[in-house]
Design brief:
single chain; four-stranded mixed β-sheet
């Protein structure tokens, strides 16, 4: 005759260490969303810079400035995310936008000779091609754009 001991294979809920419910919600639901947003904030500009189809057929005269860049240029990689988020924050104001043109794109190569672009990133006023600046300093770019 077999004799069974009660509760021998069962685990008691009180013995298991569990996080309090509010902390469990934060760790399981809120933290992954925050991490995804932070990762997106960091990687979206680089994806835009490298993978967008930037075939530009004309310079938009309504924009605040034009940025000529090369996606493999380390200086451009430094400044492009700032320009990307500037454009996102000002998406409804065309006069505040900075048009970006990837001069590596074969369809955009004519801008190199047309506007004598010698270095990247080069910022130019769309209505006055002689006004230009080559810089990665955000303050210099802001001062140039606001002139």
């Amino acid at each position: 005759m077999k004799h069974y001991i009660k509760g021998g294979n069962e685990t008691k809920k009180g013995n298991k260490k569990q996080l309090p419910k509010p902390i469990k919600i934060v760790v399981n639901k809120v933290l992954p969303v925050i991490l995804l947003l932070v990762a997106g904030f960091y990687f979206i500009p680089y994806a835009s810079m490298n993978f967008q189809n930037n075939d530009v057929d004309h310079i938009n005269k309504n924009n605040e400035a034009v940025m000529f860049y090369s996606s493999t240029c380390s200086h451009c990689q430094k400044v492009y995310p700032k320009i990307f988020w500037h454009n996102v924050l000002n998406f409804k104001n065309a006069d505040k936008q900075i048009q970006t043109i990837n001069v590596q794109n074969p369809n955009n190569k004519h801008y190199i000779t047309e506007f004598a672009v010698q270095e990247t990133p080069t910022f130019m006023k769309p209505n006055n091609p002689d006004m230009r600046v080559v810089s990665t300093d955000v303050q210099v770019i802001n001062d140039f754009s606001e002139r």
